[in-house]
Amino acid sequence: MRSNILRRLAGYVRGRSARPHYAIMPPMPDQISIRIHHQKRRGMAMKRTPVGLVVFLPKWMRSDSPQAQAFIAEGIHKLGAPPPREETLTAGDLRRMVNVWAQVLNVQPARVQIRTMYRKWGSCSSKGTICLNSALCSVPEELAEYVVVHELVHLTHFNHGREFKAAMTRALPDWRERELALTALLDGRVD
Ligand SMILES: [Zn+2]
To answer: In what order do the strands lie in the sheet with 52-58?
Structure first.
């Protein structure tokens, strides 16, 4: 089972076409997806996230300035180019997945949000709001499904304890492999 998922994952990573969804910096190869985030900060920063490379710049600095461009080029060199992204699922697919699994698990999220998240694949609030990273549209379906089930199980078990894990195993016997495969894809966390 695990090797099957990993093989599919490998094929997925290799086979993705260069179709960028996020802001592309002109001098960069067009398959690299980079998001520019202006912040109140002094220096520049850059990291790999579930949505690709994110560059944090001070508010006053233009992203096409020589300084920023040199920083980004060096960052890509250090961090490695992010994989090109191709959306295989739509937000509607994710919502349908939530509905199906909510019935299976007999739970009802108060709200489901799908949005850009920089650090997590998904989260579940104590009020029952489930957030899913829109970047899940670009991962293999079984990995997005893992995040959906994980967050829905939190509606019953609001921690990662033994009961949570047992419920995960009942729902998705191979959830640990899926979690590993998702972690291998990028640095995003699941909360
Ligand atoms: Zn969690």
So the answer is: 34-39, 52-58, 45-49
Pairing between β-strand 120-124 and β-strand 111-115 as defined by DSSP bridges: unpaired
Taking only the tens place, the pLDDT of each residue in 102-150 is: 999 999 999 999 998 877 889 999 999 999 998 898 888 999 999 999 9
Task: Note residues around ion ligand 1 (Cβ under 5 angstroms).
Answer: 191
Per the domain annotation, does 49 fall within a domain? Answer: yes
Res. 54: pLDDT tops 70: yes
Tell me how far the alpha carbon of residue 157 lies from the centroid of ligand 1, in angstroms: 9
25 C-alpha to center of ligand 1: Å?
34
**Residues 151 and 179 occupy one common structural domain:** yes
Contact 29, 83 (CB under 8 A): no
Cα(183) to centroid(ligand 1), Å:
14
Structurally, the chain folds into a number of domains equal to 2
In our burial notation (b when 16+ CB lie closer than 10 A, e otherwise), range 114-139 reads beebeebbbbbbeeeebbbbbbbbbb
Is 63 found in the same domain as 100? no
Distance CA 48, CA 80 (A): 9
Task: Give domain status of residue 41, yes or no.
Answer: yes
Q: Residue 133's domain spans which residues?
A: 91-190
Last residue of a domain, one of 79, 113, 133: 79
